[in-house]
Amino acid sequence: MTGWFKTLPAAAAGLALLASGGNGFDFSKLEKSVKEHTLDNGMKFIVLERHQAPVVSFVILANVGAVDDPKEYTGMAHMFEHMAFKGTTSLGSKNIEKELELIAIEDSLFMELRSERLKGHLADSSRIAGLTQAFETARQASYEMIVPNAYQEVLRREGAVGINASTGPDMTRYYYSLPSNRLELWMAMDSERFLNPVLREMYRERDVVAEERRMRVENSPFGKMYEELIGLAFKAHPYGIRGIGHMSDIQNFTREAAMEFFEKYYAPANLIAAVVGDVEAEDVFRMAEEYWDRIPRRPAPERIVTVEPDQQGERRMVIEVSLQPRYGAAWHIPEVTHPDRPAIDAMLDYLGQGRTSLLYRSLVKEKKIATGVSISSGGVGDKYPGLILAQVIPSPGHSNLECEEELLAQIEKMKTEPVPPAEMDKIKARARSSFINRLVSNPGLARQLAVYQNYYGDWREMFRELDRINAVTPEDVQRVARQYFTSKNRNVVMLNTIES
To answer: What CA–CA distance (Å, rounded) separates 264 from 229?
Structure first.
């Protein structure tokens, strides 16, 4: 929610009433207000006019995430989040011709350095030292041509807020909000960075990503456990590789590989633009034709063909650490568009989300064998079949195995004891509220319209979500518990404390 909003618009208040089970808002009216247009180059625009305040929110969703990272370049999708606002050939440089010359030298030296490093123990250490020094000198020279943060500064001067980007397993999003009289500014600037990008400071940002991996994985016991757990669960599908990527891949990113990735996955036919706020849809479509249709049409990449084989038995791993023990488990589930997912979400709410859940009450409050417990879906991705992920932090003096026994006992209870009707009502109310809360602002609506278009191929499915939530029954919850919480579908990683 931006600073321009002091109170929720009337539509949002109606949505909140709908979330609580009331009928104070006509959801179909909101759906009919959405308009769409697809450019000749394949890029789709979704527009929702909301004239309560003179602001507009923009989301560009690229249908590319960590799941699409090429072999030897894991983490590449995440890298583009870091490169999101580095500017173009017309913005961000003191002298673009000179900068491009220096970038070419920088790249050439790194390719030589990379080639020598890849020789492993046969590499010439003196040559590596010389090339490293030459590369650092060239890198610094190219950086001196940069006007720092030029792209963001233009936007901020014009009133932009919430300028950011995010990368997940399935998609990458670029978003911010502007005063509505700056619609054409957004059209011009954002189309330009998809038409004429310059991957400035790529090697500097690569170092930032490498440090991020050290912090989140190498120096984090939980990070290590999570990485091992998803790697244990997936033997074929790329969901088994963390979005941050492998360190050796990060350190060997090249600008050439990055541009190949961009050309493949940032094709207009692989992009969705959602525009929500004080605009006229026809103005948006007219300007989109002028600015965005400049980008040449390229085919959208195909979905990943690799299918994770059915797991044939429990997989288990133990990692010895000098810190507090921790338990992690994962079970395979279908993709987010599968009919079972609303029931799975209801099951996980009842089982382990919040202080009133079965797992929290049993492990933390009553037996006091754990200090924390959680269970959720979607962590590795939702576009393809993913995982339920559970973690437990044992209390001092209690073990992972003790916590596992109680965790599995509560899961078995889900299979044999139906969710009480009153609890089912609460679960649905929370699900409705969570869904509606994502729609009460212009940025939230823009994000969700783009996300549903990306997952379902039709933004209209956003308006069917409440029906899917309301249709779940206690019998559905029992059925999915029995179907997916099986021993052969289970993966376990435990961090066990080294005995001194």
So the answer is: 30
At 7, the amino acid letter reads T
Q: Pseudo-torsion of CA 213, 216, 220, 225, nearest 10°?
A: -90
- Domains in the chain, ordered, with CATH? 57-93+146-294 (3.30.830.10), 315-497 (3.30.830.10)
Residue type, 176: Y
For residue range 272-294, what is the model confidence (pLDDT) as tens digits? 999 999 999 999 999 999 999 99
Give the whole-angstrom CA distance, residue 167 versus residue 57.
Answer: 19
Q: Which residues of 405-438 are buried (b: 16+ CB within 10 A; e: fewer)?
A: ebbeebbeebeeeebeeebbeebbebbbeebbeb
Q: Which residues pair with 327 in a beta bridge?
A: 392, 494
For residue 368 the two structure tokens come to 């006091």
Distance (Å) of CA 136 to CA 143, 177, 204: 11, 37, 10
pLDDT in tens, 338-385: 999 999 999 999 999 888 899 999 999 999 999 999 999 988 999 999
pTM of this structure: 0.92
- What are the tokens at 213? 């991996």
Taking the CA atoms of residue 406, residue 407, residue 412 and residue 415 in that order, the dihedral angle to the nearest 10 degrees is 150
DSSP string, 139-191: HHHHHTTB-TTHHHHHHHHTT-EEEEEEE-SS-EEEEEEEEGGGHHHHHHHHH
Nearest to 173 by CA among 239, 88, 78: 78
- Longest CA–CA span in the chain (Å) reads 74
Angle between helices 183-195 and 150-157 (to 10 degrees): 170
User: Which distant-in-sequence residues (6+ apart) come within 8 Å of 428 by Cβ?
Assistant: 346, 469, 470, 472
Question: DSSP assignment, residue 376?
Answer: E
- Give dist(CA 378, CA 383) in Å, integer: 9
CA 13 to CA 267: how far, in whole Å?
38
Helices (H) and strands (E) in the chain, counts: 19, 11
